[in-house]
Amino acid sequence: MNDTASQGVATRTARVGKYRWRVCAMLLAATTINYVDRQVLGVLAPFLQTEIGWNEIEYGYIVTSFQAAYAIGLLCTGAIIDRFGTRIGYAIAISVWSLAAMAHSLAGSVVGFAAARFALGLGEAGNFPAAIKTVAEWFPRRERALAVGVFNAGSNVGAVLAPLLVPVIAATWGWQAAFLFTGVLSATWLAGWLLTYRTPDDQPKLTKAELDYIRSDPPEPTVKVPWLQLLRHRQAWAFVAAKFITDPVWWLFLFWLGKFLASEYKLSLSTIGLPMIVVYLMADVGSIAGGWLAGRFMRMGWDVNRARKGAMLTCALCVAPIVLVTQVDSLWIAVALIGLAMAGHQGWSANVFTLPSDMFPRHAVASVVGIGGFAGAVGGMLMSVFTGAQLESTGSYARIFLIAGCAYLVALAVVHLLVPKLQPAAFERAPAA
């Protein structure tokens, strides 16, 4: 019976078609480029610090300029993407970040790098709102978490590719070439996007069977809602809370993981690469597995609410053991704990990013994602300040990782209190102009 059921599922999938996964592959490529672009400066920072002559405080200003712009951009770009649609909105975002990435090659001072990073943050902020909205347009609800998990894996691919490619390019053609290279990658993706992307209703290569499958969810309301109006709904605050509480843990790993491994296990630049690659590869697996798990629960007959929160709980429990990482003496046990936590975060993100499309109509998804992303970026900035102060005063990561390990369970409790059934937000009529 199981073999017969499996064959039936495979037959239905083949009959429906798979063009939507080509679109998801483009989102994966864009997210990978996004993270390569933002990681270039981190890879080159030790060399540029000597070359340009900035000090640690000035480098902090450069990093903060990116975070601030990213927060502002997430607040604004969602509304822009909802206004112009994913095809044009995504094109605007990647055009800005492509030009900003290449502009780094012209910088020769702290102010120049800070300005380039600010522009990069504004452009890159559009990636996730545009990608999430694209998933909402191209995938039925039961597949969205998996699709988000697939393209979100690009964040880890980019984090692995940057330390592999950037030093080689910089050593061969100069540090300016590294920034130009990533900008050219972005521009190449943009050309492919504009030439091939259409919404499902306008895509001639999409079969009627696949279009019907994509549109198999119940009809959604069509009223247009300004993003300020969205904040009147608990559903928006649930997503905002989830991002504000848990995004800082991801920023913590991005900015402090290398420093933690180097200080605790005496790793050098030549030996730190392999542990970090292993950690990000584990995060890749978690990103896809977390999205797959929610879909698996739905195929078992669970409703969206139970499936989504069940997957989120599983991911939250994967992060919890990170509280033990300061107590272990083995590097590879520490890598396993950190990798499990990062895998849990990425699986969590695959499901959290799907919440807006679970609870809001498609035309409002990018705006909700942008608002939540803004909250997550602000939380990340606060976490960076706390981490720096904590390490300066105690030199210990114990309290930092304790907070990280508990954050996801707290966030899930808040989400459940705000939206116990993940009920869609109700929009009765369009607001007055």
Overview of the molecule:
With 433 residues, the protein is mainly alpha-helical. It has a single domain (19-208, 225-418), classed as Up-down Bundle (Growth Hormone, Chain: A). Helix content is 79%, strand content 0%. The protein has 18 helices and no strands. The chain has helices spanning 2-16, 19-52, 56-84, 86-103, 110-124, 127-138, 141-152, 154-173, 175-196, 208-214, 227-230, 234-265, 273-299, 304-319, 331-352, 355-359, 362-394, 398-418. It is globular and about 60 Å long. The termini are far apart. The model is unreliable at 1-13 (pLDDT under 50).
In short:
InterPro entries: MFS, MFS_dom, MFS_Na/Anion_cotransporter, MFS_trans_sf. This protein has 18 helices and no strands.
- Structural class comes to mainly alpha
Shape: globular
**In CATH terms, what is the architecture?**
Up-down Bundle
Helix content: over 70%
Classify the fold: give the CATH topology. Growth Hormone, Chain: A
- Low-confidence residue ranges: 1-13
Order of helices and strands: HHHHHHHHHHHHHHHHHH
Biggest sheet features: none
Oligomer description: single chain
* Total tally of structural domains: 1
Mean pLDDT: 84
Radius of gyration: 21 Å
Strand content: under 5%
CATH superfamily: MFS general substrate transporter like domains
Number of strands: 0
N→C terminal distance = 58 Å
Number of helices: 18
Name of the CATH first level: Mainly Alpha
Which features would summarize this protein structure in a list?
433 residues; mainly alpha; Growth Hormone, Chain: A; disordered N terminus; MFS transporter; MFS
